[in-house]
Structure prediction request, 267 residues.
Amino acid sequence: MSEPVLAVSGLDVSFVQYAKGLRTRTVPGITGLDLEVAEGEILAVLGASGSGKTLLAQAILGILPHNARTGGEILFRGSRLTPARRTRVLGREISYIPQSVTSLDPLMPVGAQVRIGLDAAVAERVRRRLFARYDLQDHVAGRYPHQLSGGMLRRVLFATSVRDTVRLVIADEPTPGLHAEAVEEVLRHLRELAVSGVAVLLITHDIRAAVSVARRVAVMREGRLVTMETADAFTGDGAELRHPFARDLWRALPQNQFSPGGTEWHS
Ligand SMILES: Nc1ncnc2c1ncn2[C@@H]1O[C@H](COP(=O)(O)OP(=O)(O)OP(=O)(O)O)[C@@H](O)[C@H]1O
Ligand code: NI
Prediction:
């Protein structure tokens, strides 16, 4: 088997908080997390609000809050992601698709935003290709974010994040609040990236989205990886799922109201 693109082992994230006077206390954010994402694989990370999903993304990207302390190891393509290495690979080999289109600069035309980080000599050519890939007409390049529809803005986000050199894409909640068709479009773009060999870490609390694109689903609770499931196991009444917590999540979906043993199941 080839080397994973991303390998996280024994990751700990904790926060130092000031208590009374000068005393400090440490609150855990992530504890002992191990996971790997292979080339061309979409790994979904699923978990309730506050379970540590965004912290995982921030730990990889090196953008944790200042009061965070970390332990463990994060390997990207076999070597450690040190701060120096991050400055070389972020935006080039590792890209981040943020949750919200508000991360776009309201004061800069979207075409210029797509060119950021690209080699000046090829930037405009690459920008055109990315626009074509994400179904954005060329004249849109001169527009500002507030002049575009929500759907176009999400496609601009992809165009700003995706580069030929990218090997790992981290998408943090790319689908909440979107109608079904828009969700499907975002998932299709993630699938296309994976097919082209990119490793995709999809952070979400949308089980159905996770299961429809990912091969494996990592389930987090309170900062720990509770279970690693195959997406295929999220089917029927969830009997194929390895861990009861994954079964609970699956069965709590409104369309999965099963009645085991004759009793109605409610979340
Ligand atoms: N700077 C901080 N200081 C202390 N605790 C923090 C800090 N930042 C985050 N946390 C805590 O870390 C925990 C995990 O947060 P995280 O944002 O990773 O959750 P999440 O799984 O992404 O949730 P959501 O689905 O709502 O985005 C939360 O309980 C949060 O309160
Ligand atoms: Ni989050």
About this structure: Confidence is low (pLDDT under 50) at residues 261-267. The domain at 39-68+83-262 is CATH 3.40.50.300 (Rossmann fold).
